[in-house]
Amino acid sequence: MNIRGVSLSTFYDIVDDISRSEYAGNVAVNRDARWSGRSSITARLRVTDSRGLGARTAASGRHGPYACWHAHRDVLRQVFAVAPDATVRTVLETYRGEPGFRQNYPATAYRNVGSLDYPAYMPELCLHAGCGAESAPVEWPQPQPQPPAPAGDGGDVLERIHRELRQADRMRPQPLFFEGPQSLLDAPDLAYSGR
């Protein structure tokens, strides 16, 4: 996805909140998320457990780190709740602001992502029946008034520090894990190391 109007750290926070509240912490931002311009980011959603909540299969039935249609819906719904004028471009559709998302996202459930002989639709690929309402219309939360923060307690500063530390942990490079056979010299074969 290419998202204009939302910062990378805000997007990470949105995905963390939705993941914890709706998908048992299984949905995450892919490691290749980055700034792609002055005011736009490029990011993908993934799941940590390919058989957990928020996961889907490929049209062929293969399991992988694919986030389902409902997880994308819930994350984008929150993106537009935070930034109603944002623009999100995906493979299936471009959403210009909250009204564009409301109008166009439900129709993406009926686009064939399989082949002509074996059609497949995104909501059908979800692994869990409770993942989201089957092609339900997008429900919008009512805006809640935010109580004013008490002056001088420093809670907002601590929250910002914790949020920035969580972001720094997510940006840390992940160690490579060897996944293949040993070569003749008992050294990892780089062809299998995920590079």
Describe the structure.
It is a single chain. The chain is an alpha+beta fold and 195 residues long. It has two domains: 130 residues, no CATH class; 38 residues, no CATH class. 28% of the residues lie in helices and 14% in strands. It has four helices and nine strands, in the order βαββββββαββαα. The strands form three sheets. A five-stranded antiparallel sheet has the order 3-4-1-8-9. Strands 2-5 form a two-stranded antiparallel ribbon. Strands 6-7 form a two-stranded antiparallel ribbon. Strand 3 and strand 4 form a beta hairpin. The longest helix has 17 residues. The chain is globular and about 55 Å long.
Following the backbone from N to C, one meets helices and strands in this order, namely EHEEEEEEHEEHH
Instruction: Show unreliable segments.
Output: 133-141
Q: Going across the major beta sheet, what is the strand order?
A: 3-4-1-8-9
Largest sheet: 5 strands, antiparallel
What are the key terms here?
single chain; 195 residues; alpha+beta; 2 domains; five-stranded antiparallel β-sheet; two-stranded antiparallel ribbon; 4 helices; globular
Brief sketch in words of this structure:
Residues 140-150 have a biased composition (Pro residues). Residues 136-158 are annotated as: Disordered. With 195 residues, this protein is an alpha+beta fold.
Write the layout of secondary structure elements.
Blueprint: E1 2-4, H1 8-22, E2 27-29, E3 34-35, E4 40-42, E5 45-47, E6 55-57, E7 63-67, H2 69-82, E8 87-89, E9 94-96, H3 97-104, H4 155-171
